[in-house]
């Protein structure tokens, strides 16, 4: 509707050490101070042929400023709320002290319009992270409140350039303005708020200029409300070097595609092996009925930087992460139900059994372990389970719904240890994992960070529709 791309889319466990490594991290070069002001602004999202779009952005821009520091430094961010709604800032993926996690009613009071709050914490792990509100998230993130947080390694790998790609989509009208209807029941009960205009770093992008022979490090972050991306870098051989910020054994992606659900990140190394003047599409294949060209890598006419790929290692140094001890781990289970096309006959809500129709009347679309809990701005959601400090937790999750759910844990990292009953041998530490319809998976994590933490689906409309709860460590 807004662009060629939009038209295309329209068609269609034992006990581990309890010491908290981030508490004792030695700050390098002291504090890194920033100031952020969520506020109204304008941005040319749809392209020069269309008017600017009214947005909410940190410092009035989308994406918000890139916050960069090195592993072990202390981040201090003063936030002044310049929008007419209460807000917070959540530091997605960072293992930080509970009181800095940015969850209203759980770790802090919401920041009122005109109010201020200062976040201050050491960053224990290098990697690719991002920041966003954790209050009214569907609308606040959907209007542009998000930005990258990059924690650099002490000794980064050798590349010629580094690019940060924030992947998003927007639901725009013919006037290029953001359409309302945030958190409507259709989005809550289906696959979330899927937009009609796909953007790279806050704008429709046709081409990314590259040079033959160079090596790129791409930091990919899915900041969309509900869209899942599955990017095929045609004519190239990307190597995944980190997932959700943490290093993995470098490898080619499954099926040659980088698949990221909302909240997920991937670092990849891309050797530009094309010739000057060539063009290669990056194609999104996740939704078979809506395959489209996301962007084009456009090779310039310059002489190739080198004739063969750079001969330098691409494996990142590991972060110091707690490894789950599965012997004697505490076992917990989560069953996700609800949504459209659900076989669910009823659920427990406020002490009685209700059907899906009554749930929807309260704005609730999803259940966890057969319980339906209306969402509210205070995040007063159910306590799903408790784990003693330092103990490993095995969490088995079963998705009985017809929809995908990226499940995000705050304050911790985990490993996937089984899918559909089959053991998984992976070295990835994650904070968000995608569970497919009718799929089951099991994760394990060391509960080494005390406090009450959120566990929720990062499809923001699923989150507000009841797929959000707490777990407690301590």
TrEMBL record:
Q: Mind telling me which SUPFAM superfamilies this protein's record contains?
A: Cupredoxins
Taxonomically, the superkingdom here is Bacteria
Which is an annotated Pfam family here?
Cu-oxidase_3
Q: Does the keyword Oxidoreductase apply?
A: yes
The chain positions of domain Plastocyanin-like read 49-155, 164-275, 376-473
Coiled-coil annotated spans: none
What terms describe the molecular function in GO for this protein?
A: copper ion binding; oxidoreductase activity
What is this protein called in UniProt? Copper oxidase
| Organism the protein comes from | Oceanibaculum pacificum
């Amino acid at each position: 509707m807004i662009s060629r791309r939009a038209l295309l889319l329209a068609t269609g466990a034992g006990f581990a050490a309890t010491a908290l490594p981030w508490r004792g991290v030695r700050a390098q070069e002291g504090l890194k101070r920033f100031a952020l002001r969520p506020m109204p602004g304008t941005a040319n999202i749809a392209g020069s042929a269309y008017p600017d779009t009214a947005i909410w952005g940190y410092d009035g821009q989308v994406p918000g400023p890139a916050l960069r520091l090195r592993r072990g430094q202390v981040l201090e961010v003063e936030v002044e709320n310049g929008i007419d709604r209460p807000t917070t800032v959540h530091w997605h993926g960072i293992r930080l002290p509970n009181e800095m996690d940015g969850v209203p009613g759980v770790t802090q009071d919401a920041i009122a319009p005109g109010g201020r709050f200062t976040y201050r914490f050491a960053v224990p792990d290098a990697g690719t992270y991002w920041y966003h509100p954790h209050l009214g998230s569907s609308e606040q993130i959907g209007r542009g409140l998000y930005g990258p947080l990059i924690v650099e390694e002490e000794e980064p790998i050798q590349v010629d350039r580094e690019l940060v790609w924030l992947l998003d989509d927007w639901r725009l009208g013919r006037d290029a303005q953001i359409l309302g209807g945030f958190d409507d029941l259709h989005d809550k009960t289906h696959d979330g708020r899927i937009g009609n205009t796909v953007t790279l770093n806050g704008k429709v992008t046709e081409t990314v200029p590259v040079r033959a022979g160079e090596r790129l490090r791409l930091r990919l972050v899915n900041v969309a409300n509900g869209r899942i991306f599955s990017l095929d870098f045609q004519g190239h051989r990307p190597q995944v070097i980190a997932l959700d910020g943490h290093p993995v054994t470098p490898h080619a992606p499954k099926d040659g595609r980088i698949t990221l659900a909302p909240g997920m990140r991937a670092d990849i190394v891309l050797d530009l092996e094309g010739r000057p003047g060539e063009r290669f599409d990056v194609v999104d294949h996740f939704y078979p009925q809506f395959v489209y060209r996301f962007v084009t890598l456009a090779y310039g006419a310059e002489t190739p930087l080198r004739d063969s790929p750079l001969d330098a290692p691409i494996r990142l140094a590991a972060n110091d992460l707690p490894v789950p001890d599965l012997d004697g781990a505490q076992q917990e289970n989560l069953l996700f139900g609800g949504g459209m096309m659900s076989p669910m006959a009823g659920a427990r809500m406020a002490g009685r059994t209700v059907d899906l129709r009554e749930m929807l009347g309260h704005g609730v679309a999803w259940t966890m372990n057969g319980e339906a809990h209306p969402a509210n701005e205070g995040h007063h959601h159910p306590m799903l389970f408790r784990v003693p400090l330092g103990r490993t937790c095995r969490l088995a999750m079963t998705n009985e719904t017809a929809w995908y759910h990226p499940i995000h844990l705050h304050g911790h990292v985990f490993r996937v240890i089984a899918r559909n009953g089959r053991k998984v041998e992976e070295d990835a530490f994650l904070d968000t994992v995608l569970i497919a319809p009718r799929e089951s998976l099991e994760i394990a994590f060391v509960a080494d960070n005390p406090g009450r933490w959120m566990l929720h689906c990062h499809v923001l409309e699923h989150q507000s529709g009841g797929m959000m709860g707490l777990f407690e460590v301590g």
